[in-house]
Every structure is written in structure tokens, then in C-alpha cells.
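User: Design a sequence. Structure:
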């Protein structure tokens, strides 16, 4: 601890990629209270954003491709010296490579706590399982998971005691992601993309990769197009599967109804064009895309994988699809397209839940309390993340009967619901890919 502040090193491979984890770490570094915390952003790779982050926190580069090389070992030694010299209290790693750096360097460095993070379930290999099970985890103070689903996977795959894993749901910037019409800088992209005016848009924000199973989304689009006239389908992303997806669109004969953004445009403008938002992934952690959908007041249709069921209230803020078939995925979308009152009700509840439980401000407040408890467990009360089941929060934003506890008008205009609507365990609100 330096100058009375808690020293926290945030370790991530890079912040130069516009993806979920990289954006999240950058937001933490920008937003965390600099009067209480001395934040150090430590990366393996340089980038323009990394250099810009010097305006918000201390930055340090530990350049290496691998820690299995002499140069990599030297970086571990350099990191240990840095932790000791800067009196870092918490070394928090967000990726596999930086977990090696943070844990190896944090051991015997004077750090109070070393924390490693699990945000997805598709990175496990036999080597990485052994690495964490036999070397990293015994030297790690706590493990942070971004959903109960990921906690269960980590516990099982790594033979890790569940009591050592803390669930911390990440947040979404509810000032940037808002319902269409609230932010004057956001403009629907429908006209620019060539979508006819007044056409309902069913969209998905996901890079074009096999794990996102966009083929399921497109086959469902064909099913829907045969049942409901004049519907457009928007795929927001880019990636390796683009050509295959285009071929599938032609085979399904739905080219006139399907639109690809290919990485162009502001995702908020694309969300503003949507009536219903989807996610067809085979695997997820705790999806940033779903949080962004909800913050924009969209009902969400998603496959029941990973932490999707911890964000979506099935039948209230959207639908969870448990069967990976075209008909099963299309059915709830058709239901919402044919029932505007139901769609609007789900949209309202989705927005309320996002602002009440998943705002970035709330996430940062909980993370600050988490760090303080790690350093001063006898002074700062236990935040209680380990004891609270995800579905215990259902009634805190949406009533058990499905009725809205906080009025839509209260939340839609940026005011926090009454304290009893949020529940006593949530900090007061001041007012983002893995998911992609």
C-alpha cells in the first residue's frame, strides 16, 4: 500500500483489441476510484490504447510472447520487482498468459492477494488444465468467475474448491447503451443498410466465428421469413466465417432479407435498428452482447448456454432456447413479432433489469469493495459474492409474478429504483468481447 491507497495491478495481454475482456479491463482502469486505489495497467503487448491509458492510471509493459523462454522468465523477474517496488497489494490477471505472469511474479513479492479470472469455457486444453491445477491455483489467493456457469466449469475442470471462486458479473455502460431515442448521438442504421422503413429487424451481435453458430440464426431466419412477412435479419460483426455464411444465405434464398455489417458502423446504431436481439452461441461465459441488448431495451432470445440464463429471465425479459433446432430458436422470435404488446413488455423489463443489476457503475463499486476486502478482511465486510446464488436476485428487479417492481418511468429516465426494489445487497447506482 502506497500513500494510503490500495495498489492494484491489472494484468491483461493487451488492451489494443476491441473485444470484451480488453474493453472491460480498460474501463476498470478508467473508472476505479483513484482516491482510494493506485491502479497499474500491465500488458504484454503495446498498443495505441495502452499508451492512451497513461492519462488514467500507471502503465507498465512486460513484452513477451511466452513465459517458457529465457526472455519470458526475465519478464517474470521484472514483474516481481515491479510489484515489490510499487507496493502492489492485489495482482489481478484476466487471461491465461497474464495469469502465469501475475501468479509467478506475485509469489513472494509482498502482494496481499493474487487473483486470476475465468470469463469463458472454450480455452481449456490438457496443458492449460494441468498448468492451473498443479502450478497456478495453489499459488492463487482467489479465482474470479463472471458467472455461476463458469464457476462450475472452473471447479470441475481444474479440481478447484468452489469456495475459492467468487462470482462477479461484469457491467455494461448504461450511459452509452440506451434505448433508441434517449441518446441524440445514436441513429438507427436501418436506412443506411438498405432495410426498408418500418421493417422489424431481428438482429445478432456476434463476430462471424463457429462458436457463435450463426448458421442456426440464419436457418431460423428462413423459418421466420416463411411465417412472418417483411422481416429483416441483421448480423453485426465480422470474422472468418463470412464467406460460409454468405453461401448459406444464398442456399436458403433469403438474401433480400439478410444484412451483414462486416465490422462497419457503430454497434449502438445497429442496436437502435433492432426490435428483437438474439444470441445463438454454442458456448458463452457471461455475454457482453446480452448486457448491451438489455441496456438498449431489447427482448433477448438466446441459447441456454453458459451464463445466459443468469442474465435473461426466461419468459420475462426474453426467452432461453434449450433445444438447438431451427424451429425451437425461431418459435419465440415469431411469438414476439406477432405480439407487439408482449415484445414491449419484455423490452421494458429487460431494460429495468440491466440498469438495476448490471450497470458498469454497479460493477465497479462491487469490484472496489472486493479489492478492499482482500486487503483488509477484518476491516471491510465480506462483499458476499460467494454466498449469493444468481437467481436470488430475480425479485430485486422484476417481481416473482413477472410484474415490474420499479416503474418503467423511473428507470427509463435514468433514476435508480427505490432501495427495496434493488435489494439490500446491491450498492447504490450512480445513475461492456467475450460476448462478441
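Assistant: Done.
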Amino acid at each position: 500500500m502506497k500513500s494510503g491507497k490500495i495498489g492494484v495491478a491489472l494484468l491483461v495481454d493487451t488492451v489494443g483489441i476491441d473485444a470484451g475482456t480488453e474493453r472491460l479491463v480498460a474501463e476498470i482502469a478508467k473508472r476505479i476510484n483513484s482516491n482510494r486505489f493506485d491502479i497499474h495497467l500491465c500488458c504484454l503487448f503495446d498498443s495505441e490504447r495502452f499508451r492512451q491509458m497513461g492519462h488514467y492510471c500507471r502503465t507498465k509493459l512486460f513484452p513477451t510472447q511466452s513465459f517458457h523462454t529465457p526472455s519470458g522468465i526475465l519478464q517474470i523477474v521484472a514483474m516481481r520487482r515491479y510489484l515489490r517496488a510499487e507496493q502492489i497489494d492485489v495482482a489481478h490477471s484476466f487471461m491465461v498468459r497474464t495469469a502465469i505472469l501475475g501468479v509467478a511474479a506475485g509469489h513472494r513479492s509482498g502482494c496481499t492477494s493474487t487473483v486470476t479470472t475465468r470469463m469463458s469455457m472454450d480455452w481449456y486444453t490438457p496443458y492449460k488444465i494441468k498448468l492451473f491445477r498443479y502450478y497456478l491455483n495453489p499459488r492463487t489467493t482467489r479465482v474470479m468467475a463472471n458467472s455461476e456457469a463458469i464457476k462450475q466449469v472452473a471447479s470441475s475442470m481444474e479440481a478447484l474448491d468452489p469456495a475459492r471462486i467468487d462470482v462477479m458479473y461484469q457491467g455494461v455502460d448504461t450511459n452509452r447503451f440506451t434505448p433508441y431515442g434517449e441518446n441524440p448521438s445514436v441513429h438507427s442504421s436501418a436506412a443506411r443498410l438498405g432495410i426498408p422503413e418500418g421493417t422489424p429487424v431481428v438482429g445478432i451481435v456476434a463476430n462471424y466465428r463457429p462458436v457463435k453458430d450463426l448458421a442456426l440464426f440464419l436457418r431460423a431466419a428462413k423459418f421466420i421469413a416463411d411465417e412472418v412477412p417483411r422481416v429483416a435479419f441483421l448480423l453485426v460483426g465480422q470474422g472468418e466465417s463470412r464467406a460460409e455464411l454468405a453461401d448459406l444465405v444464398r442456399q436458403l434464398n433469403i438474401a433480400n432479407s439478410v444484412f451483414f455489417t462486416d465490422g462497419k458502423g457503430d454497434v449502438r446504431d445497429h442496436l437502435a435498428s433492432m426490435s428483437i436481439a438474439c444470441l445463438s452461441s454454442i458456448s458463452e461465459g457471461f455475454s457482453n452482447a446480452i448486457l448491451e441488448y438489455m441496456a438498449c431495451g431489447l427482448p433477448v432470445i438466446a441459447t441456454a448456454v453458459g451464463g445466459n440464463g443468469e442474465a435473461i429471465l426466461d419468459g420475462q425479459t426474453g426467452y432461453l432456447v434449450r433445444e438447438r433446432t431451427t424451429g425451437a430458436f425461431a418459435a419465440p422470435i415469431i411469438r414476439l413479432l406477432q405480439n407487439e404488446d408482449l415484445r414491449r413488455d419484455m423490452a421494458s423489463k429487460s431494460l429495468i433489469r440491466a440498469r438495476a443489476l448490471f450497470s458498469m457503475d454497479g460493477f465497479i463499486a462491487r469490484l472496489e469493495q472486493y479489492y478492499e476486502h482482500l486487503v483488509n478482511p477484518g476491516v471491510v465486510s465480506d462483499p458476499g459474492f460467494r454466498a449469493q446464488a444468481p437467481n436470488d436476485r430475480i425479485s430485486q428487479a422484476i417481481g416473482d409474478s413477472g410484474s415490474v417492481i420499479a416503474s418503467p418511468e423511473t428507470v427509463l429516465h435514468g433514476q435508480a429504483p427505490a432501495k427495496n426494489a434493488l435489494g439490500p445487497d446491491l450498492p447504490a447506482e450512480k445513475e461492456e468481447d467475450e460476448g462478441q
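The domain at 6-167 is CATH 3.40.50.2000 (Rossmann fold). The two ends are 36 Å apart (CA to CA).
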